[in-house]
Amino acid sequence: MAGLVYDVVVIGGGPAGLAAAIKTTEYGLKTLVLEQGEKLGGITLQCIHPGFGIHYFKEDLTGPEFIYRFIKKIESLGVEYYTNAYVESIEYRSIMEKKISVIMPGRVLDITTKTIIYTTGARERHRYEINIPGANVSGVYTAGEAQAMMDLWGVMPGKRVVIVGSGDVGLIMARRFALEGARVEAVIEILPYPGGLTRNIVQCLKDYNIPLYLSHAVVEIKGRKRVEKVVVAKVNENLEPIPGTEREIECDTVVIAAGLIPQVRLLEKLGVPIDPATRGPIVNDYLETSIPGIFVAGNALVINDFVDYAVEQGEQAADGARLFIENKGIHTRKWRRIVKGRNIRLAVPHYVSGDKDVVLYARVKWPEDNVWFRIPETGRKLFMPKVRPAEMIRYVLAKDDILKTTDKITLEVSGQ
Amino acid sequence: MTRVVRKVLCIVCPRGCEVKVVIEGGEIKSIEGNACPRGAEYAVTEVRSPKRVLMSVVKCRDGDLPVVSVKTDKPIPKDKLLEVSKYLANIEVKAPVEIGDIIVENVLGLGANIVATRPCRKQK
After folding, report:
1. Residue A399: how many CA atoms within 13 Å on its side-chain side?
2. Contact B57/A at CB under 8 A
3. Is the model more confident about A171 or about A391?
4. Fewer CB within 10 Å of terminal CB in chain A, N or C?
5. Dihedral angle at the C-alpha atoms of A180, A186, A190, A196, nearest 10 degrees?
């Protein structure tokens, strides 16, 4: 068993995981990466559009270009990794000992580690989670499935497409389909405002004259063997379909882009408390979960707009793991709670120590213009010309400001 | 003289200004609504000659995956995107391919190259 004892095991070989593993290796910690897929890289491998790395590399890269910079670093540092490695369970033995059971082709491994950085990303919400009834026919894909078909395997999922959901993933797939010669009949969004970044509304829909229907829902999928049409209807303020507003759109393909949910199954099994707003674990500013020495980063923590943020979180978790190993645990005298005030839907992390500056990530509940992002306990405020649910607010909370506070730190968005 | 008002949603920064460009007789007469000079510059380009980077995939023979992802190494005119995309649908390259390899030089004479954005390893 001697070869299978690590300081850090990173579960998930996407952007957050690779960034974490590079840093812990540079710190001299014995690190192993476990990736479930055939290759390192995660979902970025199939994101062939630009927009990656603008913050991190100050360059506009595609997903694969971005992730291969990390993969090359992993190779040059000689970081150990296994692909096709499925983590079956995590067991907490003691503060400095966790056991991971891994299933790989032809063998089963038991790995012992002091810390875990959990970066398993997210899963997509599917058709039945957003209540689209109707025929159980072929031609219904999630956006990520359609993307993998087109961009990894070179297969067109269909010719006439309806996209459900206007988040960035849905918008980017609308453009992808249009560019490959498919006809995108419509993007259907249940909320009264678009889910994605404005630049994507412009560059993915307007460029290709793809109609976006806000306050609309797909209420039925019709077809015999394959999708033949969808029924869409307007919805009221409670997001319920309004009778009499139904109409049919003919199509052969429905792409569900209804949002992502952090994939935290193994953490839930361990009893880690989950935040109902982020649907990821509750963490402190070292991105440590309630279980000592288990850290989480990337989309498994909170759904991020930019891959750069996932990388940043991976690096923060790496710092946490290093501190944990050096001090046999993270010992903070006083935790302050992050409290969600007016128009704040979610915020990460949930507790801050005051030991260091902290990067806060928050999302608003509804769009507003000309507002202030405020933290009353510190007296700080930041003017924001626009806040949008689709655009995460990133704010660096200074250590000195944290030390001014006692038990809580409120985030809020308001007119003054 | 014909007077055209074009509304351009600026995407240079997250502020998202709606910039109004007034064109008279083919000439830009005024630009309004932009909060900064970059917005004006963007709006002019959008009105005069909108350009985009194209991304797609091309077939890759003997590779670890059947296709390799590509992009144009500079923006190309927006109205040529579909033409280039169609052209790329009939291209085939042979593994191995490295990131940055030129797949098509000066594609359709537009002054941009098609470059690989993912390595494609040779599959035995």
Report:
1. 4
2. yes
3. A171
4. C
5. 40
